[in-house]
Each structure stands twice: as C-alpha cells, then as structure tokens.
Amino acid sequence: MSFVTHLECANCGQEYEAGKPHALCTSCQRPLWVRYDLDVVKQHFTRKKLVGRPPTIWRYLELLPVADPSNIVSLTETITPILQVPVLAKRFGMKHLLVKDESRLPTGSFKARGMAMAITMCKEFGITKVAAPSAGNAGGAMALYAARAGMESWVFMPEDTPAINRRECALAGAHTYEVNGLIDDCGKIVAAGEKEKGWFNLSTLKEPYRIEGKKTMGLELAEQFDWQLPDVILYPTGGGTGLIGMWKAFAELEAIGLLKGKKPRMIACQSSGCAPIVTAFEHGNRFAKRFDNAATVASGLRVPAAVGDFMIIDAVKESDGLAMSCPEEEIPRLMREAVQAEGISICPETAVCLGVLERLLDEGKISDRDKVLIFNTGAVQKYSEAMEASLPKLNLNDSIDWSAI
Q1: pTM of the full predicted structure?
Q2: Is 3.40.50.720 the CATH number for 82-106+209-389?
Q3: Region 144-150: what's the mean pLDDT?
Q4: Which end of the chain lies in a sparser environment, N or C, as judged by fewer CB atoms within 10 Å?
C-alpha cells in the first residue's frame, strides 16, 4: 500500500497523477516531487512500529513510493553506521565530528539507495529497459540493480570516468559507452535515445524516484540520532539528489511530528574544479550557470550543470546553510590524511567536505562546538586514479636496503 497522493513540479507546482511513470515537468522541464498524505502516514509510521523491522532502507516503507512490496529490487541496502572520528576531530579542533559511512552499501556507494528505488519503481511500472549518464558510481549501481531485476541497461560515461566504474558497468552486463565530453554531454545522448531506443531515462532528477531512495539517508539519520539531528551536515554535491532528498525527509518527519529540535544547517560542498552551485549561491542566484571546463579528481562532483540546481540552493538557504568549495589541489592530501588518521575508506568527494570544513572553521562560519556530520558517499577502492594521485610512488625494488628503511 502506498500513501502517495500525487507528484508535483518543484518549480511551477503543476500536479501529476501517481501510479504511472513520469519524467520532468511537461510545462517547465524541471524535476518532480513525490507527495504523500502525511496526515495518514502519521497514523501508520511511528517510532514504536519501527521496532523489530529489518535494518534496511525498506523499513521506512510508509514514506516510500512503492505500492506493492513484492516489486522491491534489493541487494540488502543496510543501515549505514555513524562513526566517531576522534583523530580528525582533534586535528580540526572540534568537540563533535562524525562520519556516516555509505561505503558499506551494495555497489560500494550511496548510489545504491537511489538506484534501488528507481529500479524498483521501473519494475512496478513494467519498464524493462533503462539508461543513464554517469561519471562514476551511479552507472554501476544502475547496471547492477537492473541485472538484479532482469532489465536491459545502457550507460554513457565520460571517457575519463574512473576505470573501475566503467568495468563495473560492463561486468554487470550494461551496454557501456565512453563519450568524449562531460556528464551533461552523456545526458544528451540518453535523452536523444528515449524515443529511438525505447529506454527509460534514469538521469539524476529527470525521474522522481532516485530522490526518494536518497531520502532514506535522512530518515535513518534521524532515527540513529533518536530524532534529534546534528547541528550541521556537510554533503558532497554534484547532482545534489542526496542533499535534496535529505531535506525532503526532514520536512516530512517534521510534518508527522517525529523530529525533536531544529533541522540541521546543510552545507553543499563542491571542488573548485567544478563549483556551479557554489558560484550561484555566492552571487545570490537560485539557478546556476553551466560551469565551463569542469575538472576534478572527485568524479562524482564533476557535474557542470545540475537540473535540480534551484532545489539544492533552496534547501541550503532554508536551512541557513552554505554552498562552499574546496581547492581542487587539496583533495589528494585531505583524502590521504583522513584515511591514515581514521582507517575509514574515505572517497575524494568526502575529502572535499573536509576541505570545506577547514574553511568553515577558519572563517568562523561554524563553531568548534557544533555537532557536525559528514557523509562518506563511497569506498575509496573505487577511485584507483585518485588513490594514485594521493600517494608517492611505491618502491618496487626487488631487494631492500634495510639501512634506508
């Protein structure tokens, strides 16, 4: 049973019927929200009813769009841990610094949440062929969940996408293509093929259900914190689905009376090598211009133009948050130091958050006493090129000079 009432354009407010596939708003070509009857949800979704449910994202079914649970396509999307990072906290001079480690999810990244939900809804709607552009982990997640569901999948990736991501897609059976361009160039190919090839477009925010999967980050975060959220959340922001989804989750939880206290300040973190949201935010704009010559080792953040730009900026402003960038050249150092300090598989996108944290503290924009949570959105093992860039050359000598060690 689903409590979805309708879908609604996030920009112009036009409403759409639930229970059938939708893409962007037909009036303004902007993303759609999934809306629920929260008065009814309030009666069915309580803290008490969560007790004993399996520790996966599907425990929050009343706030998810699935009508028939038998359609769920799952690889067991577990609740991810919140880790203390005392060495990093001391290094930053902070009292409370935490990391939510999404690298534990199937496919090794947070993209499993969105693609599990999107593929589930495709199954519910009888869709058998899907396609998406990807500069990193989304393509692999889509390919693997599509394989799980017995669907045909197509992935278009910039030619400088990390090799592991490209191979993951191909290994899962996806028709995998390298494109001479950026992710938005890949997106144009996917859009052009909708009519020609008959696939359903699962590009970021060009369908409404990846947000609902990413929303589970906010739902489980609230439950893990006993419904009283941290003061500040730093989130690596490319297409922005995760930040948007979390803010939607917090609003829905607040509406049904589960949240205690204030909602967190949301910090959208980008690399200086690709910072369209930061640039728009700093200029007071709601919509972002395409970021020319985008280049960053944090491949998940290499999104020069996000269709949900205004949704990201709205969430940041509503939360009294910020959009801020980390210098691109600092990413390898920050990733190396974080992994060595805490032994956590910190990805380059999360290293960007650490660079932003340094700036926030230096500029007095957050307090060292704030309870700050950073999302680690993927496993560093999926970024062999970034790992190589962060390390000195290994000693490959056949013999060892012990006096030099």
Answers
A1: 0.94
A2: no
A3: 98
A4: C
